[in-house]
UniProtKB/TrEMBL annotation:
Example GO molecular function: IMP dehydrogenase activity
All residue ranges annotated as the CBS domain in the record: 10-68, 76-131
Organism: Mesorhizobium escarrei
Enzyme Commission number(s): 1.1.1.205
Pfam families listed in its UniProt record: CBS
Upper classification of the organism: Bacteria, Pseudomonadati, Pseudomonadota, Alphaproteobacteria, Hyphomicrobiales
Name of the protein in question: Inosine-5'-monophosphate dehydrogenase
Top class in the EC scheme: oxidoreductase
The entry's keywords: CBS domain, Oxidoreductase
Amino acid sequence: MNVKAILEDKGRAVETIGPDETLTVAINRLAEHRIGALVVTNGDRKVVGIVSERDIVCAMNKHGAAALEQSVRHAMTAKVNLCTENHTINQVMEIMTTGRFRHLPVVKNGQLDGIVSIGDVVKKRIEEVEREAEEIIHYIWAG
Protein backbone atom coordinates (compact mmCIF):
# COMPACT_ATOMS: atom_id res chain seq x y z
CA MET A 1 0.00 0.00 0.00
CA ASN A 2 1.32 3.44 -0.87
CA VAL A 3 0.60 7.17 -0.62
CA LYS A 4 -1.15 7.11 -4.00
CA ALA A 5 -3.87 4.89 -2.47
CA ILE A 6 -4.41 7.39 0.34
CA LEU A 7 -4.66 10.32 -2.08
CA GLU A 8 -7.08 8.42 -4.32
CA ASP A 9 -9.41 8.07 -1.32
CA LYS A 10 -9.08 11.49 0.29
CA GLY A 11 -8.20 13.65 -2.71
CA ARG A 12 -5.26 15.87 -3.46
CA ALA A 13 -6.59 19.19 -2.18
CA VAL A 14 -4.20 20.95 0.19
CA GLU A 15 -4.70 24.11 2.20
CA THR A 16 -1.76 26.42 1.61
CA ILE A 17 -0.62 29.80 2.87
CA GLY A 18 1.95 32.32 1.72
CA PRO A 19 5.06 33.00 3.83
CA ASP A 20 4.16 36.69 4.21
CA GLU A 21 0.71 36.07 5.72
CA THR A 22 0.42 36.65 9.47
CA LEU A 23 0.12 33.92 12.06
CA THR A 24 -3.36 35.28 12.81
CA VAL A 25 -4.38 34.44 9.25
CA ALA A 26 -2.80 31.00 9.63
CA ILE A 27 -4.68 30.36 12.89
CA ASN A 28 -7.97 31.39 11.30
CA ARG A 29 -7.38 29.06 8.33
CA LEU A 30 -6.43 26.14 10.59
CA ALA A 31 -9.59 26.64 12.65
CA GLU A 32 -11.83 27.21 9.62
CA HIS A 33 -10.72 24.00 7.93
CA ARG A 34 -10.25 22.03 11.18
CA ILE A 35 -6.72 20.99 10.22
CA GLY A 36 -3.39 20.91 12.03
CA ALA A 37 -1.00 22.33 9.42
CA LEU A 38 -0.79 24.53 6.33
CA VAL A 39 1.75 24.00 3.58
CA VAL A 40 3.62 27.22 2.85
CA THR A 41 4.07 28.03 -0.84
CA ASN A 42 4.86 31.11 -2.90
CA GLY A 43 1.73 30.51 -4.95
CA ASP A 44 3.60 28.33 -7.43
CA ARG A 45 2.84 25.00 -5.67
CA LYS A 46 6.52 24.72 -4.70
CA VAL A 47 6.81 23.88 -0.99
CA VAL A 48 8.85 26.45 0.96
CA GLY A 49 7.73 25.42 4.44
CA ILE A 50 4.98 24.09 6.65
CA VAL A 51 3.34 25.80 9.62
CA SER A 52 1.66 23.63 12.21
CA GLU A 53 -0.20 24.22 15.44
CA ARG A 54 3.03 23.32 17.25
CA ASP A 55 4.99 25.99 15.32
CA ILE A 56 2.43 28.61 16.31
CA VAL A 57 2.48 27.57 19.98
CA CYS A 58 6.29 27.81 19.99
CA ALA A 59 6.18 31.28 18.40
CA MET A 60 3.64 32.47 20.97
CA ASN A 61 5.69 31.02 23.80
CA LYS A 62 8.73 32.93 22.58
CA HIS A 63 7.10 36.24 21.53
CA GLY A 64 3.76 36.33 23.35
CA ALA A 65 0.75 37.88 21.65
CA ALA A 66 3.08 39.86 19.35
CA ALA A 67 3.71 36.60 17.47
CA LEU A 68 0.22 36.83 16.01
CA GLU A 69 1.28 39.73 13.80
CA GLN A 70 4.51 38.09 12.66
CA SER A 71 4.70 36.54 9.23
CA VAL A 72 4.34 32.81 8.77
CA ARG A 73 7.96 32.67 7.55
CA HIS A 74 9.16 33.46 11.09
CA ALA A 75 7.31 30.51 12.65
CA MET A 76 7.21 27.92 9.88
CA THR A 77 9.39 24.87 9.59
CA ALA A 78 11.49 25.63 6.51
CA LYS A 79 13.21 22.27 6.22
CA VAL A 80 10.21 20.16 5.23
CA ASN A 81 10.27 16.41 4.81
CA LEU A 82 8.44 15.45 1.63
CA CYS A 83 7.22 12.24 0.05
CA THR A 84 5.89 11.09 -3.31
CA GLU A 85 2.85 9.00 -4.11
CA ASN A 86 5.19 6.01 -4.49
CA HIS A 87 6.25 6.01 -0.83
CA THR A 88 4.79 3.08 1.08
CA ILE A 89 2.66 3.54 4.16
CA ASN A 90 5.43 1.97 6.24
CA GLN A 91 7.99 4.44 4.85
CA VAL A 92 5.68 7.38 5.62
CA MET A 93 5.05 6.09 9.17
CA GLU A 94 8.80 5.86 9.71
CA ILE A 95 9.42 9.39 8.37
CA MET A 96 6.68 10.82 10.61
CA THR A 97 7.78 8.89 13.68
CA THR A 98 11.46 9.78 13.27
CA GLY A 99 10.70 13.46 12.60
CA ARG A 100 7.97 13.64 15.27
CA PHE A 101 5.42 15.37 13.05
CA ARG A 102 1.93 14.53 11.82
CA HIS A 103 1.73 16.00 8.31
CA LEU A 104 3.75 15.13 5.23
CA PRO A 105 3.38 17.05 1.96
CA VAL A 106 3.35 14.98 -1.22
CA VAL A 107 5.22 16.33 -4.24
CA LYS A 108 5.21 15.43 -7.90
CA ASN A 109 7.68 16.99 -10.34
CA GLY A 110 8.80 19.40 -7.60
CA GLN A 111 5.31 20.74 -6.94
CA LEU A 112 2.78 20.15 -4.18
CA ASP A 113 0.46 17.28 -5.14
CA GLY A 114 -1.25 16.43 -1.84
CA ILE A 115 -0.70 15.92 1.86
CA VAL A 116 -1.02 12.95 4.18
CA SER A 117 -1.60 13.09 7.91
CA ILE A 118 -0.87 10.48 10.51
CA GLY A 119 -4.64 9.94 10.70
CA ASP A 120 -4.77 9.16 6.97
CA VAL A 121 -1.89 6.70 7.33
CA VAL A 122 -3.35 4.92 10.35
CA LYS A 123 -6.78 4.65 8.70
CA LYS A 124 -5.28 3.10 5.56
CA ARG A 125 -3.08 0.74 7.59
CA ILE A 126 -6.07 -0.48 9.61
CA GLU A 127 -8.01 -1.10 6.38
CA GLU A 128 -5.04 -3.06 5.05
CA VAL A 129 -4.76 -5.21 8.21
CA GLU A 130 -8.51 -5.90 8.20
CA ARG A 131 -8.40 -6.93 4.54
CA GLU A 132 -5.46 -9.25 5.20
CA ALA A 133 -7.30 -10.84 8.15
CA GLU A 134 -10.38 -11.44 5.99
CA GLU A 135 -8.22 -13.07 3.30
CA ILE A 136 -6.61 -15.37 5.87
CA ILE A 137 -10.00 -16.38 7.30
CA HIS A 138 -11.35 -17.00 3.81
CA TYR A 139 -8.26 -19.09 2.96
CA ILE A 140 -8.61 -21.17 6.13
CA TRP A 141 -12.33 -21.83 5.66
CA ALA A 142 -12.08 -22.39 1.92
CA GLY A 143 -9.17 -24.83 2.27
